[in-house]
Amino acid sequence: MINVAVCGANGKMGQEVVKAVSASADMALVARIDIKDGEFATIKDAKDSVKIDILVDFTQPRSIYENALYCLNNGIDIVVGTTGLSDEQISELKNLSQKEGVGCLIAPNFSTGAVLMMKFAQMAAKYFDNAEIIELHHNQKKDAPSGTAVKTALMMSEENSDFTKGNCAEVETISGARGAKSYNNIHIHSIRVPGYIASQEVIFGAGGQILTIRHDSMNRECYMDGVLRAIRYVSENHNFVYGLDKIM
Question: Is 36 a catalytic residue?
């Protein structure tokens, strides 16, 4: 039996994780952690009271790094669903995970469809010299661009060195009109409006053709298969993984 604690348990994603873990025959929900009306207010409070094998974190960008550091320094394997970590922070968590021998799986997206979208985009990146990413989320998402968009751009950049080949010299008459420039000049555009949960499209262009790869999440239940898959993987392997695609 895997003893699982959920941090951010009263958030929208946290509530879904609580239900999914509770319904899994090979898992036991041992702690609901949340600063607002949680069973425990902090990870330390929970650790002092119950045995935690794995902590699943769906909190806030401002707290995830410290939460992950605490877990890795205290022998608690962690599955991170909170986005907003910088490349430097991810590198530091990887080093700490390897040093301490404690599992850490960071996934910008737990939807199997979204992971396939990223893998398909990486495949297409070999054959197109021009590409941009549009990601669309609800207006309560605090970080931009999304972790999924950043991870997608990183995967694409492994296949091609420049995604603006042949573009003319550009002038933004309004700053930011062309979006954020990420790895190897991939432009990312972030949309935040009510009604969306999470959507992303990667647009590839070449002479006479356009390829669009898109994924839409209709509800938060679609992430739970990936979350449970990540918990089971970390419980057996205790290593560092960045991206659900690495274990699919």
Answer: no
- Asked if 12 is an active-site residue, the reply is no
Neighbour order of strands in the sheet with 198-206:
180-181, 187-192, 130-137, 198-206, 209-217
CA distances from 73 to 66, 95, 97, 165 (A): 10, 12, 9, 45
Q: Of 94, 119, 137, 189, which residue is the catalytic one?
A: 137
Catalytic one among 19, 44, 94, 141?
141
CATH number assigned to the domain with residue range 112-217, chosen from the 4 options 3.30.360.10, 3.40.140.10, 2.80.10.50, 3.40.1160.10: 3.30.360.10
pTM for this predicted structure:
0.81
Q: What does the pLDDT look like over 1-26, one tens digit per residue?
A: 999 999 999 999 999 999 999 999 99
